[in-house]
Specification:
heterodimer; A: alpha/beta; Amidase signature (AS) enzymes; 11-stranded mixed beta sheet; 15 helices; globular; B: alpha+beta; 8-stranded mixed beta sheet; elongated
């Protein structure tokens, strides 16, 4: 697949058209969706319409993403398309407005071809929690693509689209990126507007980019980043040129490695791949330093308190009253609430709503929610201290490569441990990126994760780009456009 | 017997802040529009929408706090109050909880004892401890009446959802329904005064809930409390509290037990009744609203807000009393509303007589305004014209009695004092020569009465005054007529 800058430049120069790019993406999506189940909606008519608009525009040099086909995770609102969040409870819901990121992508000339499958309300690490069946991993259809942005990751990995948007609450962009062998970028909390992203854990959620190339992730971040007057949690921090330092070398940059994080629980092949990538960075001139994140061991516990607490409140609006699914045969109000939510939500979502309701309950708030917030503060301080010693922290993105469907589905705790390396970034609010760093003996991708200080996306992209250039993943998934 | 009981009342007042748009989105707060027309993804609670604080609500909240003499916290936190109800589109209300906009304030109000007929006497100051003043969004409205098919469905109007409110909560400091009454009136006036709220209970932009309990005097523990709702005027609230206090005492004295519950006041039946739905012990699971950063209110902002506020009623009443020589009662009455106080001061400027102007406003003008259902701001008689009228009377151009008629006509027609006086030929005659001439004619025409008067029947003096006034068509200055008549009748 071409990088988006090649594609875009070709369209701007008139060597090809947005229509051609869009058609080829649509054809691939339609052809591969039977096997991948990556898309919940493919909007052929809308996308071709949009492509025609782009082609009709005489001056395209101002469009940084002219004609670039996009896939959007189905928890981000796009006017004219469905938003299901992978849940039955939204029923046939069509939002009357665009998320801010969508407005920005459209203004930049991109063409949205469809909405991608995900774990219900972004809750899951395997895509098995989608009400519409799981996405399959293009490298091995018997394995999970990761989650929750599994559809976006698979669509990029299979070469259907060069880039896609996902959302990352505890690793939901980075983890499927690692399992599908693509780039997954989670920006700093407050870097990208959440307006129009259906909330899961509001203090953790961040829209992120899945891309085949680091440079493409940089180009997309360039368009979607920045203060938004509709999201009070976006920061008024200047947006740098993310492509400017992309090609600079990484000599002298310090990469922090925590030996503890490479200890038990890590798949030996993942550990080996990470050790190799550390060596690769050393070869590129980076300095490797030891760092310690002493509170990282509490991260999963803290995450599953805060995320579920916020989710229990965020998902209260799905009550069958105003939109989406409403249970039949419920004559009284409370019965209607109960039946709608019972029939509309899947088991994992219910589990998290119950957990979240519990930790916020009178008499338990201090012991759980408040304590978790305190540990969250300590974890932030861990990162602050670590970043005094290094420019980025390197960890595996996931403890194992893609696992089999059904392997962990009955063991929520084992499933939650998939997020062990990724949740820390969401709790601390720092940016992170997952970069493919090799294949397992089964031919499954392995990802390395780089975490940086607040607003350091440019440096993370530069580190990732240096790695991808030096050690590209010269393999293609089995299912490819 | 009731003397051995003590009443304990705490109040919660919800005041709608007078913003043009809602607290977390740009939708209009206009009342009475087509249902659900003033809505957007944010106030509809659509998936993905996010709140953004309307700073105007903060400004009016600050005005409200300052008008009540409350502090403003430099940093406060919005929290989510979680509960399910169809008029609450997000399933939570954005409110404030453990770090409110203002906390632990002390408010001084004036309160009075009331006689049997409810007339106030013995006004005296009272200290009220205000637990908190916080900002929050209003919910929408469930509509069960007035629509087709309503027997099958209820409807929801979300125009009101997201309207900014200031909730003001007191400690259980009130010991009588009248204290509560005086407090709510004080709050109402203060909020209206600074333009923070229209503070109209009938329109629902001021809502009040009362927590009421009784206990034996000297008993340190509080009795079982009830929460009173549906109090649609300050007077209704007072009556509802009174009703509950009597019920509590009656129940307890007859050995009965009280239940902690929420009661609605039914003004028509003049009684309380339990809320239809069983009041559950709600656990609102408050937690900090992650979609909104902490509300930081800089000192400069508070100072700017304070500087932009009008002189408050208390200080203004004191000033009226001191610089215009008015009694406390007069000064209080003239500062009952800001528009009235403004009216008074403009009128004084035109009349040059502060006390006479106060009397004219309090008696004649107030009556006309009340009859017409108007406030001073809407008076058809402008303040400068009322002042002109008072000045004419002061200068003896017309009599006080004429003045009353002139004011009625000014009020009716909107004409100036001068125009009405001229139209009616009402210029008062004080010229002694002219008055003497009339008196001579009257005396000449009444020889019998003159004889009787001179024989000692002094009550006939009034007869002569009446005849002179009549002959002068009421224009003669009564003071001069009196003087001259006494003189003439003697000789």
């Amino acid at each position: 697949m071409k990088s988006i800058s090649n594609l875009r430049d070709g369209i701007v120069r008139g060597e090809t058209t947005a229509r051609a790019a869009t058609e080829s993406a649509l054809n691939a999506a339609e052809k591969l969706n039977d096997s991948l189940n990556a898309f919940l909606e493919i909007d052929r008519a809308g996308a071709l319409n949009r492509a025609a608009q782009v082609d009709a525009q005489s001056e395209k040099t101002d469009l940084p993403l002219a004609g670039v086909p996009f896939a959007i995770k189905d928890n981000i609102c796009v006017r004219g398309m469905q938003t299901s969040c992978g849940s039955r409870i939204l029923g046939p819901y069509h939002p009357p407005y665009n998320a801010t990121v969508i407005d920005r992508l459209i203004a930049a000339g991109s063409v949205i071809i469809g909405k991608t499958n995900c774990d219900e309300f972004a809750m899951g690490s395997s895509n098995e929690n989608s009400a519409f069946g799981p996405v399959k991993n293009p490298w091995d259809l018997s394995r999970v693509p990761g989650g929750s942005s599994g559809g976006s990751a698979a669509a990029v990995a299979a070469g259907i689209v060069p880039v896609a948007l996902g959302s990352d609450t505890g690793g939901s962009v980075r983890q499927p990126a690692a399992l599908c062998g693509v780039i997954g970028l989670k920006p700093t909390y407050g870097r990208v507007s959440r307006y129009g992203l259906v909330a899961f854990g509001s203090s953790l959620d961040q829209i992120g980019v899945l891309a085949g190339e680091v440079s493409d992730a940089a180009a997309v971040l360039q368009v979607i980043a920045g203060r938004d007057s509709s999201d009070a949690t976006t920061a008024d921090v200047p947006v740098p040129d993310y492509s400017a330092e992309l090609n600079e070398d990484v000599k002298g940059l310090r990469i922090g490695v925590s030996r503890v994080l490479l200890g038990k629980g890590v798949h030996p092949e993942v550990r080996a791949a990470i050790e190799k990538s550390i060596e690769a960075y050393r070869d590129l001139g980076a300095e490797i330093v030891d760092v310690d994140l002493p509170h990282a061991k509490y991260a999963i516990a803290v995450y599953y308190i805060i995320a579920t607490a916020e989710a229990s409140s965020n998902l209260a609006r799905f009550d069958g009253v105003r939109y989406g699914f409403r249970a039949k045969d419920a004559p009284a109000l409370k019965e209607m609430y109960r039946k709608t939510r019972d029939e509309g939500f899947g088991p994992e979502v219910k589990r998290r709503i119950m957990l979240g309701t519990y930790v916020l309950s009178h008499g338990y708030y201090d012991a759980y929610y408040l304590k978790a917030q305190q540990v969250r503060t300590l974890l932030r301080q861990d990162f602050t201290r670590a970043f005094e010693k290094c420019d980025a922290v390197l960890t595996p993105t996931t403890p194992t490569p893609a696992f089999l469907f059904g392997e962990k589905v009955d063991d929520p705790l084992a499933m939650y441990l998939n997020d062990i390396y990724t949740v820390t970034a969401n709790l601390a609010g720092v940016p992170g990126i997952s970069v493919p760093c090799g294949l397992s003996s089964d031919g499954l991708p392995i990802g390395l994760q780089l975490l940086g200080p607040y607003w350091s996306e440019a440096r993370l992209l530069r580190l990732a780009h240096a790695y991808q250039t030096a050690r590209p993943l010269n393999a293609r998934p089995r299912v490819f456009a | 017997m009731t003397n051995s009981w003590e009443t304990i009342i705490g109040l919660e007042v919800h005041a709608q802040l007078n913003t043009g748009s809602k607290i977390f989105c740009g939708c209009a707060t206009r009342f009475g529009d087509e249902p659900n027309s003033n809505t957007c993804p944010v106030c509809l609670g659509l998936p993905g929408a996010l709140p953004v604080l309307n700073w105007r609500a903060v400004e009016l909240g600050a005005r409200a706090a300052l008008a009540l003499g409350l502090n403003i916290n430099h940093r406060s936190i919005f929290s989510r109050k979680n509960y399910f109800y169809p008029d609450l589109p997000k399933g939570y209300q954005i409110s404030q909880y453990d770090q409110p906009f203002s906390a632990n304030g002390v408010l001084e109000i004036m309160t009075a004892d009331r006689d049997e007929a409810g007339h106030a006497h013995d006004w005296h100051p009272m200290t009220v401890n205000v637990t908190r003043l916080h900002l929050e969004e209003d919910a929408g409205k469930n509509v069960h009446e007035g629509l087709p098919e309503v027997d099958r469905y209820s409807y929801i109007d979300l125009n009101r959802a997201g309207t900014p409110l200031a909730e003001i909560v007191t400690e259980p400091d009130f010991r009588s329904s009248w204290q509560a009454y005086d407090y709510v009136n004080h709050v109402r006036r203060a909020l209206l005064w600074v333009g923070a709220s229209e503070a109209d209970m009938e329109k629902g932009n001021l809502r009040c809930e009362a927590n009421v309990s009784v206990r034996r005097v000297g008993d340190p523990t509080l009795g079982t409390k009830v929460e009173l709702k549906n109090l649609n005027s300050v007077r209704f609230m007072q009556r509802a509290i009174e009703f509950e206090v009597e019920r509590h005492i009656r129940t307890l004295e007859s050995g009965g037990r009280l239940v902690q519950e929420t009661l609605l006041w039914d003004e028509k039946l003049a009684e309380t009744r339990p809320m239809r739905s069983k009041e559950e012990a709600h656990d609102y699971r408050y937690f900090p609203e992650p979609d909104l950063p902490p509300l930081i209110v800089p000192d400069e902002f508070i100072e700017q807000t304070r500087a932009a506020m009008p002189e408050l009623p208390g200080p203004r009443a004191r000033r009226f009393s001191e610089s215009y020589g008015l009694s406390f009662a007069d000064a209080s009455q003239l500062t009952a509303e800001r528009s009235l106080a403004d009216y008074y001061e403009s009128a004084v400027e035109a009349s040059g007589n502060a006390r006479a102007t106060a009397n004219w406003i309090r008696s004649e003008l107030s009556r006309e305004l009340e009859n017409a259902g108007l406030t001073a701001a809407k008076s058809p008689v402008p303040a400068t014209e009322l002042g002109a009228l008072v000045r004419m009377i002061d200068e003896g151009k017309i009599s006080g009695k004429q003045g009353k008629d002139v004011l009625v006509e000014m009020f009716r027609s909107g004409k100036s004092a001068g125009a009405v006086v001229e139209e009616r030929g009402l210029v008062q005659v004080s010229d002694t020569g002219e008055i003497d001439r009339v008196i001579d004619l009257v005396i000449a025409a009444s020889p019998n009465q003159l004889e009787q008067y001179r024989a000692g029947k002094e009550t006939l003096f009034g007869f002569f005054v009446g005849q002179v006034m009549k002959a002068s068509k009421g224009k003669a200055n009564p003071k001069v007529v009196n003087e001259r008549l006494r003189e003439k009748l003697k000789s």
